[in-house]
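To illustrate the input format used throughout this study, we show a single complete record. The first block contains the structure-token representation of the backbone; no residue identities are included at this stage. The design step must infer an amino acid for every position from geometry alone.
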């Protein structure tokens, strides 16, 4: 017998709760925007400029001693995170030292890069002194303040450009009403994800840009599946009220939505718990985005069409008319 997570022929009246979804989403989006404005993001070295050093040690590590030792160097804001292996024992750590332009001498890009490299050498020397000469440096990343500023700009361009191109596709692939629905759902999911990262102060680095783009793509994919079924039903049921077609389309694709979301969640949960601190933020952002994207496809994108109506003049065998909810 095949596993069925969602019963066949479900008749859940999703559009009945559309105003509840609108109110809830409006409040949450306002809270997310407020968080981004007043709390801001916990930018990592990629966007602030500085040094990242990851080390592995054969012995247990005293995080407090490492934090104090590196902080005493006076290089910048220090953050130390432990790295645990699958057994839960402390096997290493990551040291972040943010060194933005205000903390470096303004003597040109070349001297700035030299200063960052010297800082990385000082941190490595201090870690050997604190942890022993037998530690292993897994990676050392150095980002100048000038480069970090460029990364911020390119990250913004990447997110806005992806959203714009996706919107254009949906707009020309379907009717303009569908395009507006996709715009609302995509912006909704992006704001919610960014608001979560801001509120929880998740380290925001280049990987978070990839996570946001993944959420945007997943959200649009889920929305397009519902839109495709809705377009088929508009041709199939020419006399059915538009609100009923929306409910029917969501119910018919509900099993696919649950299975797709569940599969992604199953693959990401182990990464979140066992992937270490480096991957926890990335996987957590995508997990959150999956729930938000599924929610927006059902309660935001599809019911939004009820506010605009969809002309059926393109449906064969029916005269131009706009269905009422």
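Output of the design step:
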């Amino acid at each position: 017998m095949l596993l069925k997570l969602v019963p066949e022929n479900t008749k859940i009246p999703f559009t009945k709760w559309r105003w509840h979804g609108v109110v809830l989403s409006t409040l949450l989006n306002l809270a997310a925007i407020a968080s981004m404005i007043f709390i801001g993001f916990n930018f990592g070295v990629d966007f602030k400029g500085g040094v990242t050093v990851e080390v592995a040690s054969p012995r247990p590590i005293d995080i407090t001693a490492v934090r104090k030792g590196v902080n005493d160097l006076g290089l910048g804001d220090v953050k130390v995170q432990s790295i645990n292996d699958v057994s839960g024992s402390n096997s290493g750590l990551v040291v972040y030292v943010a060194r933005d332009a205000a903390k470096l001498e303004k003597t040109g890009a070349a001297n700035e890069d030299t200063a960052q490299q010297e800082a990385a050498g000082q941190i490595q020397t201090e870690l050997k002194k604190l942890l022993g000469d037998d530690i292993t440096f897994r990676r050392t990343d150095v980002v100048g303040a000038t480069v970090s500023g460029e990364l911020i700009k390119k990250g913004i361009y990447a997110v806005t450009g992806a959203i714009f191109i996706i919107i254009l596709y949906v707009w020309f692939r379907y009717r303009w009403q569908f395009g507006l629905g996709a715009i609302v759902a995509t912006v909704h999911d992006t704001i919610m994800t960014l608001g979560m990262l801001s509120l929880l102060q998740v380290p925001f680095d280049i990987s978070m840009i990839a996570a946001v783009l993944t959420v945007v793509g997943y959200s649009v994919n889920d929305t397009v599946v519902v839109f495709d079924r809705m377009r088929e039903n508009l041709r199939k049921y020419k006399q059915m009220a538009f609100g009923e077609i929306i409910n029917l389309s969501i119910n018919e694709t509900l099993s696919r939505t649950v299975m797709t979301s569940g599969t992604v969640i199953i693959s990401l949960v182990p990464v979140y718990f066992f992937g270490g601190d480096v991957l926890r933020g990335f996987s957590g952002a995508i997990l959150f985005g999956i729930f938000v994207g599924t929610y927006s496809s059902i309660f935001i994108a599809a019911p939004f069409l009820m506010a605009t109506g969809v002309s059926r003049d393109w449906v064969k065998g029916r005269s131009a008319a706009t269905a009422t909810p």
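Structural context for interpreting the output: Residues 105-109, 316-325 have pLDDT under 50 and may be disordered. The first helix runs from residue 18 to 38.
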